[in-house]
Amino acid sequence: MKIFDELKQKEVVIVDDTPREVRAIIERLDELKIKNEYIEIDYATTNLNDLPSFEGVKLLFLDLQYGENLGIQFSPEYTADIVKNIIPSDVHYNLVVWTKDPADTDDVIMELTKINRRPTKFVNKKKETYRSGTAEYDLDRLFKEIEDELALKTNASEFFGKVIELEEDFILVDCRIGENYFQIRRFDKLPFNEIGDVIVGSIIKIKTQTSPGKREYEFFILENDAKMNELFQKKSHFDDLQDSIFLNGE
What we know:
5-stranded antiparallel beta sheet, single chain, alpha/beta, 250 residues, 10 strands, CATH 2.40.50.140, 5-stranded parallel beta sheet, Rossmann fold
């Protein structure tokens, strides 16, 4: 198990509100002599601002839903805020979504992207798929699948952009790469013709997949609402143009 062998000198963090649903994982990590920390979230009492920060974390097991026993609806912002408080913005980590409903993953990843906490790679693991008893799980299968899937996944990133100029064969996009980092990028116009009407001011989501010798992009038009526009409240575009290199999607 190459990835888990490499983690012996690193750190794994497990975040969940139900200790019995992660106890077996913690015990297996202890057996493998992998340093790990468990953070139990109690929606009613946990102050997220008081959570410890882990600069050495390389793998995060993250439950997505919190406060359901209190009738609290799923909140991707709340889950992302947990990650924001425990993982510094400059840390590169992989994410294992360990949850009862992986369908919520995309919403959490979008929120993590907004706050510059997007994982390098992530995999979805539904708890019930691996359950073999009340608090028992098929960890051999779980760890092997995590190992295999993380090894196969290409490096991925996702960020938001605002169209600032349309030309005949290219589009200039003000890209929000991080929480306080913007860059003007130039993209070929052809892919945008396939996603709908793009105008100056359109907010788009840009997904990238990078593998050796290859980089692929996907573009999505988002609802242009006040919340999304707030992400681009910053200095003028002319200042950005002076500082930026026009990259053909690079």
